[in-house]
Structures are given as structure tokens and as C-alpha cells.
Amino acid sequence: MKTYNLLYSSESQFEEFLYSNFIEFNREYLIRIHTCIHYPEDIIELVNMIKKFLPNSKIIGSSTSAVILNGKIIPKKCLISITEFNQASVRTCIFPIKSPDVSGSMFFDAISSGVSLNENSKLLITFASSFYTSRAISDCIDRINQNFPNIQMLGGVANHGDRPMPDSDEVISFVFNEKGITQNGIASAVIDSNSLNVSSEVVYVTESVGKSYTVTEADNMIIRSIDGQDTVEWYQNILGINFADFEKNEDIINVTSTFPIVKKNYGNIPWLISYSPQNDKFRMFSDENENKPVMYTTGNIKTGDKIKIAYSSMQHTIEVCQDVCDRLKDKPSDALFAYSCISRTTMFKNCADWEFTPFKRTNLS
Q: Measured between alpha carbons, how far is 350 from 283 in angstroms, rounded to an integer?
């Protein structure tokens, strides 16, 4: 098993890259493409060019605000990662969303049938084109864990270099496979093998503090009340802030990213909780009846869930990163795949710089 990485610039460069690495044109490869420089109208041209050279390969990709290579997070590039397997098969699918009422069960049915999940499936990679599909994806993950407990999963929500932070404006992020592209849907790839070993890790920056609270009303993405108190008031009281004092929405995002919530039964893995004033400056929810400020999350938070407030701790991140590196040393790997939250390149850039240092001499991509 090998992975070959290329920061793409031209067809001639790509062809030279294939020959210099002795890549066999008729072999099946998993090709991951993450691009900061393409748009929905021109990405298929790149996909078709790759298929011309590697017609039997399976492709999955997304737009992004930065790519990961050589232990660095790099903006304004297009990364093509070609992985070959000795004893494995790859299948992909793409699922456009035609209904605004998409659910986790719909995603589960689409993915499980689209890539034919089975007992030999070892790794499932899924990218969603839009921030608004995250809740359904979270529910879908729970369903996959229940039905296929041995599958490792990896992926996330796409963004774009022109608009790295999610908002309610026109979506320009996209996902694709070797057959098509969608700006409103998901793309998945599965690797089947009898001999492949896959392990996964998460490095997170958060540490929970204080007592636990109960979500007393949740309505889809909106968390309306916690311990019987309006969630906006609850959050402001805990932090001693007033959202009305912030001039820019970016400043509010910095606060909510620094102080997310964690579900009690999910350890310290963060669930971003966001604020929408629902006014002319920023309105996350277009429903004309949704006129009061709200707190919302893309995670699968339900009424009755136990949560805690958390904060972003650099010291804790160092400890978690060291633990992850120690575990990886005990599991020698032929290939390393990695995906990072947008906060790594905005709020925690220094953290990201040293966090990837141990991987500078690996094929992490």
C-alpha cells in the first residue's frame, strides 16, 4: 500500500508525476482531490483529465480552504493523493439532496446502498457539500456504527477558499466523485479488504469544565433551552458576555469556537455551538417566524442530552497530540489520511503548525 501526493499545477506536470512514480495506468487506485483553486464549473475538467490517464481509478474529493501536506496546512493549492492497495477494492457514490428535509436515515440508506457496505468494508470516507447537512450526517454516523460497527469513518464538511467560514450566503463549496459533482449533497468512498488494518484518531483542543447541564428543548439544529433557560441567555451568563456588544459576526464566531459544548457521553470531543442574531446583519435561519436570537449546533443534540461547557486548551492539545503519536507508533502505517477543522487555520494556526510537526516526513495528506 502506497500513497503518492502532488500539488497539482498542470496536465503535463501530472503526467510526468505518474511516470516518475511508475504508476500503472490500468490499475485501480483511490484518488482523493482537495482543491482551493477550482470551482463547480471547472472541477469536472480536472476529474476527466485524471480519468484519461487512470480510467479504472475511483475518485472522491471536495473544495477546501487549505490542504494538508508535508506536515503543513497549505492554502491556495490543489492536492491530488493517489493510493494503491495490494488487496483491496474501492467504490464511490454521490448523493444529491433534493429535499430540504434530509435525514440521517436518508443518508444511511444512500451511503450503505451506494457503496454497498458489507462486513469486509474497512474504511468509509464521506464529504458533505454544505454546513447545513451536518446534523443528518451525525445521525447517519450513529446508524453506521450500529449496523457496521467494524468500519472506521473519516471525512467532514467541505468549505472553500473564497468563503472558508460557513454562513447563510450562497453555497460555493462542493463535493464530487469520478461520475459527478454536487453543491448540495454528499460523496462517499469505501475500501473493502480482507487484509487491510485501519485505525483512526482525533486530536481536539477542548477540555470540559464545570457541572453538567440538560438540554430541555432542541428543535432540529436550534437548542432552544438548557436547564429551562433560553440558550442564548444561558451561554451569555456562563461566559459573562453580551452578544450585542460584538460589532462583527467573526468576533462572535471566535468566542463560540473557543468555548464550545461537549456531550457528557462523548468525552471532550467538541460540538460547536453557534449564535445567530436573526437580524438584517446575519440570519442563519430564513424562516420568517424565527426572529429571536438563537443558539444552534450542527451536531446531533437532542432534548434530554447532558452537556458541559468546554474551552480550547493548548496544553490539553499537546497532551492529546502526544497520546495520539504514541498510539500511532504502536501501529506502523503505510498511509496516513488527515482532515482538519477550519479553526486550525484561523484561530489556532500556531497550534496547527506544531501539531503537524511529527508528520513532516510522512505521506500524511
A: 31
What is the side-by-side order of every strand in the sheet holding 175-177? 2-7, 78-84, 30-35, 58-63, 175-177, 181-182
Q: Determine how β-strand 78-84 pairs with β-strand 206-219.
A: unpaired
- Alpha-carbon radius of gyration of the chain: 21
Residues in the chain: 365
Q: How far apart are CA 271 and CA 279, in angstroms?
A: 24
Residues 6+ apart with CB under 8 A from 326: none
> pTM of this prediction?
0.84
Please answer whether residues 224 and 231 qualify as being in contact, where contact means their C-beta atoms are separated by less than 8 angstroms: yes
The answer to whether the beta carbons of residues 337 and 58 sit under 8 Å apart is: no
Q: What ranges make up the beta strands (E) of the chain?
A: 2-7, 30-35, 58-63, 67-69, 72-74, 78-84, 89-96, 121-128, 152-157, 175-177, 181-182, 185-192, 206-219, 222-226, 229-230, 261-263, 273-276, 294-297, 306-312
Q: Are 349 and 321 in contact (CB under 8 A)?
A: no
Query: Which pLDDT tens digit goes with each residue over 329-363?
Result: 787 778 788 777 766 666 666 666 666 777 777 77
Report how far residue 309's alpha carbon sits from residue 207's, in angstroms, rounded to the nearest whole number: 9
**Structure-block grid coordinates of residue 354:** 506544531
Give which of 266, 300, 304, 272 is closest to 136, Cα–Cα. Answer: 300
In this predicted model, what pLDDT tens digit does every residue of 32-73 receive, in sequence order?
A: 999 999 998 999 999 999 999 999 999 999 999 888 888 788
Q: For residue 307, what are the contacts with CB-CB under 8 A and spacing of at least 6?
A: 212, 213, 214, 215, 226, 261, 262, 263, 264, 271, 301
Q: Which residue has the cell 417566524?
A: 289
Cell of 115: 457503496
Cell of 206: 477542548
